[in-house]
Amino acid sequence: MQSRRTFLKLIGLGGIALALPPYLSTLAQAPSQEIQSIYIRALLGHSPADNVLKLFRAAVDPVRNRVFVSGIMTPHIGILDANNEEWIGTVNSGFDDGNGLKYLYYDATNDWLFVFNSTNHILRTIDVAADSITGETRLENIGVGQFLPHGERNELYSVTGADDGFRIYDSQNLALIHSDTSMGNTLTSMELAPDGQTLYLLDALNPRIIHYDLNTRSPSQIIPIDLQRPRNFAYDSARNQFYIAVPPRFIAVVNAEGRTTNQLPIPADGQLQTSTYNPITNSIITVQTERPTEGRVEGVGGILRAYDASTLQQTSELRFGRKVHSVALNPQTGTLYLPNGDASVVWRISPQYDEAAAIRLGDSVEQVLLGQGGRYLFMNSRLGGNYLMRYDVMSGQLETFTAGTWPIPIRLNNNGTQLYILNFWDSTISLFDSSSLEHLGTYPTGLPPGSTDRLPDFALDEARQRALIGYPEFAQIVVWDINSHSPAATITVEGLEAGTNDGGPGNLHVQTAPDGGLFAYVAKTHTLLRYDNTYNLMGSGMRVPPITRNMPDLLYLDAELGRLFVGPHEFDIASNALSGRTLMEGIRIFYQDDAIYWANGVDGDQHFVVRLNRQTLATELRYNLGTIGQATPSYTYDPTSRSLYVGYMTQARVDVIAVEA
After folding, report:
1. How far apart are CA 532 and CA 494, in angstroms?
2. What is the pLDDT of residues 568-621, one digit of tens each?
3. Mean of pLDDT values over 291-306
């Protein structure tokens, strides 16, 4: 395997202190610190502010041939020029912390984009040309939901599973115009009739298709259908019929009278995510994810199948991506767009259905490590496209290279000469020379590829030439032999429920022990486990006081002083007990030297970094970083230059703070 390397140079940054960002404007006990920001997206040729991360939904502008794409972790909505397949900018959703499942709907007549954040139930209208929010409303008692804009009438229709099931809003300011409770609250899908005056609505619990007159604002016809729990439908105006998904078994062809005239079986090798109809190709489209086999996690590979709507015969099949859940259609060109958050791409599929082309979007900085005596800063971008970075602190040059899928965590050996990368989706470890970036090999960890998507932990024990990999999804720790590049043992973790799907990170933490054993911390039960050098559990585990915020790397070993820190709590290794001491401030330690520790913490929503006395654990210096958002920054320290590095995941930025002596 050869790594792909790209060289970029930051213009006008080297050695120059940038203006103090507003979130670092107050530095307690360090009022006049020099701060330099490394903008990774600028180095990659992108706008630093316009990041879109963990892609979620897409909406198509068929008039201007554009595609809008939202991300779960960032506020901006990406805009793709589909003619040239270039990202041409963003609009701001106004959700400043970025967090939320943001569904998109588009009105080509007025060039308005509608964003529904199902996390906080806020619906907004964005004037795309002005990049401004013109309307906002909060929707209560939300169940399922769909929105449909009608540009000619300046109206937005919604079915949300709320008590007033069907609603009409003014598209621009989102003032409620009308609500209708007569059709119940189990409407799940809408289609606009060709005359533009009638809506077709699908009722899932009471199976029927409702014709809704937009002029009289009342049902004009109710057509029962003989289907159990239909989920969504698409309308074929040429044949005046509906294609109604009834997962997991089939898609029904239903005529205008409500009679099922045919059924398209859904193949059992995948789980149906969505379906639609492409009028340009006269095709029924299904999007599925592969069912878990051979230990693989649920929803791994994407499957798109196209069927001739006249004969129901399959005409195409494509397999691509991971966890693909939605599709957006350009009805003028027949092109399909499928956002894929875990691959950081939008898949573009032409009307020929012959290729799934990946269009990259988004970058992240998820860890920062210093190697070669502080010369190089290593970073990884998992949610931002499965690549790694090495930044030359002296020259300002950035190199990118690849190892495998989902490269996290990354670790350096003790002298900083070798980089270890856990490609946790592939269940492999890649090794690189940190100076030459020579790829030294990629080796299996012993688990099937694609068998876990819960963030693992990873620790190196160079004295015994082994690595420890904590897999929370399996409730296991793999002991990996560095010399043979293969797994040597597997430990089942007591008290950790296998199959956990709460997302992490930080479900399971692992750390080496000076006597050749190891420590494991189970975050959910606040339990520290200790294993001897033959991997037998010593005792039944120790309860640790709850840690205010779970995050990666909560276990920190100070082998010289015989201490293990479980978050802020000091554990005395010799007595095998908590000492009763805690850090004066901070949640986890990330660096030590002869006299000090560096630790980071969170107070409410305020992040901070502290320098602590190594003996007394008292605070010597504190830097307030302000409100960061949902992703905890990553940290490292260079004692030679007395520089603190702070990596911000969603901004793809690293701040370098010059620390006072």
Report:
1. 14
2. 999 999 999 999 999 999 999 999 999 999 999 998 889 999 999 999 999 999
3. 74
**Is residue 147 included in any domain, yes or no?**
no
- In 3-state terms, what secondary structure has residue 153? helix
Question: Mean pLDDT over residues 237-266, rounded?
Answer: 97
- At residue 232, does pLDDT exceed 80? yes
Assess contact for 208 and 184: CB atoms under 8 A: no
Tell me which long-range contacts 529-533 makes (C-beta under 8 A, separation of at least 24).
529/493, 529/494, 529/495, 530/576, 531/491
Q: Give the angle subtended at the CA of 24 by the CAs of 19 and 26, to the nearest 5°.
A: 110
| Token code pair at residue 516 | 């050749």
Whether the Cβ atoms of residue 506 and residue 554 lie closer than 8 Å to each other: yes
Mean pLDDT, residues 411-424 taken together? 95
Give me the DSSP letters along 374-440: TTEEEEEETTTTSEEEEEETTT-EEEEE--SSSEEEEEE-TTS-EEEEEETTTTEEEEEETTT--EE
Burial grade of 484 (CB within 10 A; 0-12, 13-18, 19 or more): exposed
Residues spanned by the domain of 353: 229-359
585-605: b (≥16 Cβ within 10 Å) or e: bbbbbbbbeeebbbbbbbeee
Instruction: Give the amino acid at 76.
Output: H
- Using alpha carbons only, what angle is made at residue 54 by residues 444 and 88, rounded to the nearest 5 degrees? 125
Is the pLDDT assigned to residue 30 strictly greater than 60? no
CB 554, CB 523: distance < 8 Å = yes
- Identify whether 622 is part of a domain: no
How far are the Cα atoms of 178, 218, 474 from residue 213, in angstroms, in the given order?
Answer: 13, 6, 54
Instruction: DSSP letter for 275, please.
Output: E
Task: For residue 244, tell me if it sits in a domain.
Answer: yes
- Going by the DSSP 8-state scheme, the letter that residue 165 receives in this structure is -
Please report, as a single letter, which amino acid is at residue 271: Q
User: What pTM value is reported for the model?
Assistant: 0.91
| pLDDT for 293 | 61
Helix/strand/coil percent split, the chain, to 5: 0, 50, 50
> Counting Cβ atoms within 10 Å, is residue 19 exposed (0-12), middle (13-18) or buried (19+)?
exposed
624: left (phi over 0), alpha (psi -120 to 50) or beta: beta
Average pLDDT taken over every residue of the chain: 91
Q: Over 80: is that where the pLDDT of 502 sits? A: no
The two three-digit tokens of residue 30, written as one number = 């360090």
In total, how many domains does the chain have?
Answer: 1
Condensed to tens digits (0 to 9), the pLDDT of residues 425-464 reads 899 999 999 999 999 999 999 988 888 878 999 999 999 9
Asked whether residue 138 is domain-assigned, the answer is no
CATH of the domain at 301: 2.120.10.30
The span from the CA of 274 to the CA of 284, in Å, is: 11
Contacts of residue 28, Cβ cutoff 8 Å, sequence gap at least 6: 622, 623, 624
Buried b / exposed e along 283-314 (16+ C-beta atoms within 10 A): bbbbbbbbeeeeebbebbbbbbbbbebeeeee
